[in-house]
Amino acid sequence: MPELPTIHFIHPRAEQWREWVSREPLRSPHDEPQRFRSARDHATSQIFVHLLRRGHDVRISEHFVPGEVCVVHTDDLALREPLYDSFIVVIQNDRCSPKVGNLCVTCSRRSLRRSRDHFMPFYAQTGLLPRDPARGTRIERLAFMGIAENLAAEFAGDAFRTKLARRGVELRIEQRDWHNYRDVDLVLAVRTHYVERFLRHKPPVKLINAWRAGVPALLGPEPSFRDLRRTDLDYIEITRPEDALAAIDRLQQDPQTYAAMVENALSRGAAHSDEAVNQAWEALFAGPVATRYRRWLATRGRVARALRKLCYRWQAARHWRARRRWDDMSWWRLPGTGGASSSA
């Protein structure tokens, strides 16, 4: 197992997580999946717990620690703190590209723009319950796992449900138990219309969850899905309800293809097991992070600190403007659409 530097995870509710990990025995994120629903906790808190369970020197704090490696979700970049005194690793997730920090982690290859940007594979949903193999090749339940307003409206209406019912299929919009795929036969994920500049940051989490659960997926034309696609068995791309209905008809008439998609999903999902993702994070912290951190430590003199402080003020101003623009949803959502941004 690689040796990592001491790592501090920054979280606004760090005390709650310190209390959670202080209990014996140390639990797995899969023991309480509802605690890891938010983008922040699915990213920073989950990595913290996994690395702690693997014996690494990781800690969690409300504030940045001077002179140390600090990992923070983009939402928690508290610019009022003197971040130039810490080595900052920013987890971008599906937010705007951070203008501050020494290294940025992104979950979409389309977000890679600078030498300090690093792509990392995404954890599957905590506590995930795979599809019951006893369901065979039946197709009776189509499920959207996420916040209802993020599903394109034409898929949530009565007309689509009526046409599904004629095929013996029920639509479930699951807004709470995102981890339970036991009785799900197909995954649906077509997002309310966004411009490409927003979509390129979205992680392929719905595809990864479907693979790990062994469920074929009907997905919208998102960049992160396409980046992972190797064959037609990975998922079926759709844009309209008619596309979904045609795909369901085809799979109902060809159960062998459905079975092949299930087998392929389980095979592709192995690359996103906890073990695989944990090893990827260890490699990042032991490699690029440790290397940059050593260089950073070697240039901490008075002059270097003054330059960092000056540069940080400029970066913080740029980040503040970029964050305000990102939070103004009117610039990325197309006219006539509603709802809110979410990683779900």
Question: Could you describe the 3D structure shown?
Answer:
The chain has two domains: 175 residues, no CATH class; 140 residues, Rossmann fold, CATH 3.40.50. The protein has eleven helices and eleven strands. Helix 7 links the parallel strand 10 and strand 11. The chain is an alpha/beta fold and 344 residues long. Strands 2-1-3-4-5-6 form a six-stranded parallel sheet. A five-stranded parallel sheet has the order 8-7-9-10-11, sandwiched between helices. Helix 6 packs across helix 9. 39% of the residues lie in helices and 13% in strands.
Mean pLDDT: 87
Shape call: elongated
Rg from Cα: 21 Å
Q: Low-confidence parts, pLDDT < 50 over ≥5 residues?
A: 330-343
Most strands sheet = 6 strands, parallel
Oligomer: single chain
Considering the chains and any ligands shown, give keywords for the structure:
single chain; 344 residues; alpha/beta; Rossmann fold; 2 domains; 6-stranded parallel sheet; 11 strands; 39% helix; 13% strand; elongated; disordered C terminus
